[in-house]
UniProtKB/TrEMBL annotation:
<dbReference type="GO" id="GO:0016627">
    <property type="term" value="F:oxidoreductase activity, acting on the CH-CH group of donors"/>
</dbReference>
<dbReference type="Pfam" id="PF02544">
    <property type="entry name" value="Steroid_dh"/>
</dbReference>
<keyword id="KW-0812">Transmembrane</keyword>
<keyword id="KW-1133">Transmembrane helix</keyword>
<keyword id="KW-0443">Lipid metabolism</keyword>
<keyword id="KW-0472">Membrane</keyword>
<feature type="transmembrane region" description="Helical">
    <location>
        <begin position="94"/>
        <end position="114"/>
    </location>
</feature>
<dbReference type="GO" id="GO:0042761">
    <property type="term" value="P:very long-chain fatty acid biosynthetic process"/>
</dbReference>
<comment type="similarity">
    <text>Belongs to the steroid 5-alpha reductase family.</text>
</comment>
<dbReference type="InterPro" id="IPR039357">
    <property type="entry name" value="SRD5A/TECR"/>
</dbReference>
<feature type="domain" description="3-oxo-5-alpha-steroid 4-dehydrogenase C-terminal">
    <location>
        <begin position="159"/>
        <end position="309"/>
    </location>
</feature>
<dbReference type="GO" id="GO:0016020">
    <property type="term" value="C:membrane"/>
</dbReference>
<feature type="transmembrane region" description="Helical">
    <location>
        <begin position="164"/>
        <end position="183"/>
    </location>
</feature>
<feature type="transmembrane region" description="Helical">
    <location>
        <begin position="126"/>
        <end position="143"/>
    </location>
</feature>
<keyword id="KW-0444">Lipid biosynthesis</keyword>
<dbReference type="InterPro" id="IPR001104">
    <property type="entry name" value="3-oxo-5_a-steroid_4-DH_C"/>
</dbReference>
<protein>
    <recommendedName>
        <fullName>3-oxo-5-alpha-steroid 4-dehydrogenase C-terminal domain-containing protein</fullName>
    </recommendedName>
</protein>
Amino acid sequence: MKVTLVSRSGREFINGGLELPDSATVADLQEAIYKRTKKFYPSRQRLTVPVPPGSKERPVVLNYKKSLKDYFDEKQNKLTVVFKDLGPQVSYSTLFFFEYLGPLILYPIFYYFPMYKFFGYGEDRVIHPVQTYAVYYWCFHYLKRIMETFFVHRFSHATSPLSNVFRNCAYYWLFGSYIAYYVNHPLYTPVGDLQMKIGFGFGLVCQLSNLYCHIILKNLRNPDGSGGYQIPHGFLFNIVTCANYTTEIYQWLGFNIATQTVAGYVFLIVATSIMTNWALTKHRRLKKLFDGNEGRPKYPRRWVILPPFQ
Ligand SMILES: NC(=O)c1ccc[n+]([C@@H]2O[C@H](COP(=O)([O-])OP(=O)(O)OC[C@H]3O[C@@H](n4cnc5c(N)ncnc54)[C@H](OP(=O)(O)O)[C@@H]3O)[C@@H](O)[C@H]2O)c1
């Protein structure tokens, strides 16, 4: 079977196309492209079926597991595929690892080392118990996230663009340093003992609930990450679609009740708005996938992320 490869502008991408056996799959085509170009490994490639000029239709992305025959145009008796370079890729676990490593290292630096002399303060600093508990709470949170990345999450996408590493690291590393600077500051004023205990206690319960939510999500997929999207059931998922984000937001609220800084609350607001956007997309996707038609289950009525608001 002859496969013609074109770029999005319609120019031929591989001169003369590629010849593949009739039984070839999309994955075989991806390997053949890599072999020929020596640059575009499979996860860098986005292969789609061409759409007629002027059409508003979204192009169909070729599924790597399917046979090329499934996309063969019988009328034109040929197969034309549009190639797009997605740019250098990294695995999701690499992306998450570097995102979380920054705050895990940067925050304790502000607690353990005499950093504030570089900001014009003396070396003497009284460390309040809340600052000590905060550093443990913080490190537990990011260690948990790294452990979940390697031992719990079953990602559906193998890779993410390398550029996301820089964007996401900037977000986590800068916010981590910003919060660490204020919570460990020599002029920091601690909250009362009861408020601190309520904040950390509530936050810890939410962190453990968040881990449990991630285990529930993990069990919706096969160990190789296949299985697509399912309706999550059990625990808080019975009332809210993104219970993992709900517990994530509340655990940051707990941290902020205990430590009470403007920096911490700014992060809480930004993180909540990011997760709310994602949660709305995930909720819509599940409602569309499980629409109750043609034997498909109907997605139950649930809050999206933060009952009773959303
Ligand atoms: N503080 C912040 O700013 C912030 C922001 C975002 C996330 N987080 C934290 O990081 C965690 C991970 O976030 P995330 O957004 O990358 O992933 P996520 O949505 O929490 O999902 C975790 C894993 O479960 C899978 N999954 C989700 N819904 C599923 C369903 N209905 N059926 C089957 N599998 C499903 C996901 O698959 P896919 O690979 O297909 O997505 C992913 O592998 C969050 O839960 C939260 O604790 C924090």
